[in-house]
């Protein structure tokens, strides 16, 4: 008999006879997390992610690349990893090089350029799929165009977030978007730059992931 | 294995290890300071007592619902993960789990493994098994990296290096990391760790992680962390191996948000951790990063024993937040190493007997004042004090024919049992009680002058020469 059969056998033999009813998670959220106006959600998202040491800039749809350029310039960064084939990546590719920022692309499998990503990529730009107001959290679903390590390895991670995509809670985000019907290879919640308090409870940023998380918050008309 | 190899030594030496901590002002200060910090951070996250109570009740209901369906959910999880391309392995014992993991590593001819924080990997002592097999297993969580560098074990399940001061860590880095000058600046120390470990993330073929929640309906492994090392371990190497206890399973994705909220708020007083990482498959065709292979090892190691008993099953509700240790007056004074088990503190006292047997852990069940703080703060309402009393009964009662636990009766002493039976007899019978108290008042002077710890700071205990009942009789006559 395999370990699997033995474990399942022991559990089955002693499984409780009473069936418990499915806990009503939705009811708890309905009674404890009333829905908010869009403005209140934006304000709450901003409050919490800033508390977690992220920088947030309100930008408009027309000129967010100008803010992006300023953010990079202020840090002396002249190289940005962007996602080819995404609207924001293409826009950055059009507008940043003329202003002196070189744009590099994640255009091959990681094995071919791992060392360069780790050692010579100071910043990256990705979009967020959405966000969560309750905790000041960005939702990212990395994909072929915007792979997983883009939001992890470069020391500065810049995220473009559409303010209309902010949910009240994590529960609302996953239920309203039907996550249970299909999740991607990797879904991520990101709530600030990488940090640790493992040495004497002293908070330090940039433990293993990005040292800085910068959110460009797209507001206003489409 | 090297002479430095450390193993957990349950129970044995518990008193000596406790005394060593109590005698050290530095360690006491470290633990007291850290626990005060974590308690106040948690309290600040739950300003509304009604919300806390109802969320705890929801968390309890979710865990109990899922445990009730555990065998079915394990099969559902296995089949979803398999469809998603994640390979599932089952291990009854730590040795089996190590063999599975090292088998995968060796099957790929790999020699370098980076590890995200995983208490289950501590439970199976994977690092030692890997070392013996000539495989480098490097901890990458900053706290775990520090304790591994010092050849120690974590002293807290959430903050592994809580027993170390920054000066000790500064000396450790200076001595053990090549080319590092002494600095006790915390930011600089973290940067040193970051630089060392980034090279390792780049080079390692294998990434190992734990699992906080495994979602059966979607086949998803969820990881909670702040540093990003968990994401590194599960994304950068070509192979990801996750290991978890069989109990960490939820049926519905929707069960995750309440448990996640309870976990981070109870553990470190954060409304959410920096990263919540949900992994549902290996790299798909066209994707440019992520591991080509993902494995999940499901470990029993005594959990099925706890599962068999309705009361003991509640032990498995645990989501490993560590709030019970943060609020435990015993843990705060003696720290995590004194327990000698992988999981210290109140949760350690109720889960370790299932992993190691009551024969190895009988003493731990009594290392509690039963003040009840652990049960009050537990985010999923595990009745820890109740379970401690149950385990004491299991450990110290006479051996039974069909014991509920391995090692039942290990602490049993016929003499002590006889004394208690005698005590019960005397207190049930008025005539015997009167006779005994009369004997006590006449012959109390025979009791020794030195009565162990009691007389180290006090007068010896002696029955009064005149009993209360006699004095009352006299007074009533007068």
UniProtKB/TrEMBL annotation, chain A:
Domain of life: Bacteria
InterPro entries: FTHF_cligase-like_sf, LUD_dom, NagB/RpiA_transferase-like
Domain LUD: 43-218
Name this protein carries in UniProt: L-lactate dehydrogenase complex protein LldG
Organism in which the protein naturally occurs: Azonexus fungiphilus
From TrEMBL, chain B:
Gene Ontology MF terms: 4 iron, 4 sulfur cluster binding; metal ion binding
InterPro entries linked: 4Fe4S_Fe-S-bd, 4Fe4S_Fe_S_CS, FTHF_cligase-like_sf, Helical_ferredxn, LUD_dom, LutB/LldF, LutB_C, NagB/RpiA_transferase-like
Domain of life: Bacteria
Domain 4Fe-4S ferredoxin-type stretches: 308-337
Keyword set, alphabetical order: 4Fe-4S, Electron transport, Iron, Iron-sulfur, Metal-binding, Repeat, Transport
Keyword Iron: yes
Protein's GO biological process: lactate metabolic process
Statement: the UniProt record of this protein carries the keyword Transport: yes
PANTHER family documented for this protein: LACTATE UTILIZATION PROTEIN B
Name the UniProt record assigns to this protein: L-lactate dehydrogenase complex protein LldF
Upper taxonomic lineage: Bacteria, Pseudomonadati, Pseudomonadota, Betaproteobacteria, Rhodocyclales
